[in-house]
């Protein structure tokens, strides 16, 4: 399984970004998909997860600001990030849970700064 993430960049506080992650296999065969992030000097943190039926979970710090969604036909998961804050600055990684294993994509840098 390969994952290709995109959509990171530099944005001002209060701005928005949309991350995308394309999986090399049908996401119907995947147990869950999601996004995590890792800021410098900090541990990787799960940010959002979506299950095949569409249910979602978020870490508390992004609730109400981030939305995870998926396009089954395109084997793609998205992370819409609104009202971005400086503390959202991190490398963002997409992941899938496949055969009970976490599989990680390459990271994409998100920097929130004025």
Shape: globular
Task: Tell me the span between the first and last alpha carbons.
Answer: 37 Å
**How many helical elements?**
0
Number of strands: 10
Q: Report low-confidence residues grouped into runs of 5 or more.
A: none
Main structural class? mainly beta
* Neighbour order of strands in the largest sheet: 2-10-9-4-5-6
Structural commentary:
With 114 residues, the chain is mainly beta. The chain has no helices and ten strands. The model has no long low-confidence stretch (mean pLDDT 94). Helix content is 0%, strand content 55%.
Summarize the structure in short.
The protein is mainly beta and 114 residues long.
Question: What's the arrangement of secondary structure elements?
Answer:
Elements (H helix, E strand, L loop, with lengths): L2 E4 L2 E3 L5 E7 L8 E7 L6 E6 L5 E3 L7 E6 L4 E6 L8 E9 L2 E12 L2
Parallel strand pairs: 2-10
Antiparallel strand pairs: 1-3, 3-8, 4-5, 4-9, 5-6, 7-8, 9-10
List descriptors.
114 residues, mainly beta, 10 strands
């Amino acid at each position: 399984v390969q994952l290709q993430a995109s959509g990171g960049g530099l944005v001002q506080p209060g701005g928005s970004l949309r991350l995308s992650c394309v999986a090399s296999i049908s996401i119907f065969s995947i147990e869950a998909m999601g996004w995590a992030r890792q800021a410098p000097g900090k541990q990787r943190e799960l940010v959002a997860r979506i299950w095949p039926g569409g249910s979602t979970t978020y870490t508390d710090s992004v609730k109400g600001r981030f939305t995870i969604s998926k396009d089954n036909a395109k084997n793609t998961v998205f992370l819409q990030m609104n009202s971005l804050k400086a503390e959202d600055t991190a490398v963002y990684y997409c992941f899938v849970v496949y055969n009970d294993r976490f599989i990680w994509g390459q990271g994409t840098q998100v920097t929130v700064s004025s």
